[in-house]
UniProtKB/TrEMBL annotation:
One of its GO terms (molecular function) is hydrolase activity. Belongs to the dienelactone hydrolase family. This is Carboxymethylenebutenolidase homolog. It is found in: Cytoplasm, Cytosol. GO terms for cellular component: cytosol. Signal peptide: none annotated. InterPro entries: AB_hydrolase_fold, CMBL, Dienelactn_hydro. It holds the Pfam family DLH. It comes from Indicator maculatus (spotted honeyguide). Residues 28-242 form the Dienelactone hydrolase domain.
Length: 244
């Protein structure tokens, strides 16, 4: 049986009044937020297991848009149910088989085309959390159209040496107290990237932080965690701004 990987209670969340709106792009629904001025830069946000409707992820979309990017979070689950707080962790492995973060290429392509054709975007980055962090790691190995990526606490999958030959600059963010990702795994990731990666990369571990720490809304943050959450988010934005 798998331990509950989230140390916070995702059920106890304050509501969030979104700044963006929903759009339909081919077979995918998406939440999009635009800055108040024209820009030809965009960021795709890949949600976690709780899906594209979860208030925390929409808050992140709005936050990134506030820095001057057309920001979009597609429903990578294509209308199927996300993981729910009432679901049992014993079923998680089975659920993951039907929600594979390595099978996001088609949806990513649809959204990339939409951003370029409909929104006049020239440069695109991608940011993903947990399940989405795994998807970002995958996309940064496969899709040269993504100019930069930030993977936040995506479980590290080691299936081959190809996992480390990133196409464009990628930043990996982890929490020190994340019991789904060991510090040994992070060290190995660093060694392998050092060996195989030909582009800029960065790995940073934030003290005392658990899985999912960086996507909390301000009112849901504990005072001790707040500086690290804000630092991680500033680091994420700085990385995007450096390359996009």
């Amino acid at each position: 049986q798998m331990a509950d990987p989230f140390l916070y209670n995702t059920g106890e969340r304050s509501k969030y009044g979104c700044l963006g709106h929903e759009v339909q792009i081919e077979h995918i629904k998406a939440y999009i937020c635009r800055p108040s001025f024209f820009t030809d830069k965009a960021v795709i946000v890949v949600h976690d297991i709780f899906g594209w409707l979860f208030p925390d992820i929409r808050y992140i979309v709005d936050l990134i848009a506030g820095h001057g990017y057309i920001t979009i979070c597609p429903d990578f689950f294509k209308g199927t149910d996300p993981w729910k707080t009432t679901d049992h962790w014993v079923d998680f492995a089975d659920w993951m088989k039907h929600h594979d973060p390595m099978k996001v290429d088609k949806e990513a392509d649809v959204v990339l085309e939409y951003l370029k054709e409909q929104c006049g975007v020239k440069k695109i980055g991608v940011v993903g959390f947990s399940w989405g962090g795994m998807a970002v790691h995958h996309l940064m190995l496969k899709n040269p159209q993504l100019a930069a990526g930030v993977s936040l606490y995506g479980r590290i999958i080691r299936d081959s040496e190809e996992r480390y030959n990133l196409l464009n600059p990628t930043f990996f963010i982890f929490g020190e107290k994340d019991h789904t990702i060991s510090l040994n795994q992070i060290t190995l990731l660093e060694e392998k990237l050092n060996q195989y990666c030909k582009v800029a990369y960065k790995i940073k571990v934030y003290p005392g932080q658990v899985h999912g720490f960086a996507q909390l809304k301000p009112e849901d943050m504990k005072p001790d965690d707040k500086p690290y959450i804000e630092e991680a988010r500033n680091d994420m934005i700085d990385w995007i701004k450096m390359f996009i």
